[in-house]
Amino acid sequence: MPPAERLVRDRHFAYDLTLCALVTLVALGYTLAVGERALGMASLVITLPLLVRRTFPAAALAVMTGGCLLALAVSSVPSAAGIISVPVLVYTLARWSGRTLARLAWAVAVVGSFLGPARWALRGPAISDITVFLVSVVACFAVVSAAHVVGRKLRESEDSASRQERSEAERVRLLESEQEQRARAATVDERNRIARELHDIVAHSLSVIVVQAEGGRALAARHPERAGEVLGTIAETGREALTETRRILGVLREGREGSAEYGPQPGLADIADLVQRTSDRFELTTFGTAPPLAPAVGLTAYRVVQESLTNVLKHAGPGARARVVLACTADAVEIEVTDDGGTASVPDGQGHGLRGMAERVSLHEGELTAGPGPVGGFVVRARIPYERQADRSDTLPLPQAVSW
Asked: pTM of this prediction?
């Protein structure tokens, strides 16, 4: 048994022992005053069950009932032990026992409330004083009923408090479970975001490297002195891909969340450099001036252009030409990437690139369409609504129309 429960049990036993001793002293004093030894023996039988009223309630009720019947049989005067002990036992059973046993104890006490006064008022063949009898019955009934009601009310109050505690514990458990599910969902979202970033970076960089390598091989045969430029472009693209990959994966290193180095995210202003580095057959045209934008909008626009150009390199062939149109309207950034088809097949849309672009744009409640062009090639159109930054008042000028 745990120490706390043992302490409570010992404390309750000390209370019951003290109560039993006090009632016994009162009963013996009353018995000596009236001069009936048989009533004293019956009083001991009535008071002793108080010692086990918590641990063995049914046995205590049976023994006390027998003691009260014995007192009625051997004496015609009221039993002080019964007057005190019976309400105490009725209260105890109503407070800590089951409903059935509590009601049984109350019913027995109600019967005793009639039998006791009838025995005390009985003088010879008839009741000597009907008024004393009625007053005694009402008083005894009121005492035992009050003890039962008080005990049940306290029991119900404790049960209600216990149910409330269990309900609160369940609510806390559900809240913790909900928070845990939200944390898992946030983790999954973060992993998906990182997967999209890695896909965009690696796919674009490798496509550029492959195109530059193939072009460099042909260029080295005709103009060996220019091979160094191609190799430099390949090296620069590889370094940039490694830098961005390290930056994104740094957050996944255990224990380094606070120390991961984050570089600035690319945005609208970086699209011109992206087009320039990707291929000399790609053209960029811009319209309008972008207002202050949330970084996520600029990053989404950058990734849409990046993935679209990657698809041109992968599916339209090294000789394909592409045109990027970037327009800032009153409420959105609009992007159109068109290629002439080159010598390769049109993408089938079964890869992760188009799906990733659509997911990015949908996060901003935008729209993205992709499909074959009216005269061949492939067209990607995206519309990304603005999410403006309130803490900036300057405008972000777009690069002027450039053809590479």
From this structure: 0.46
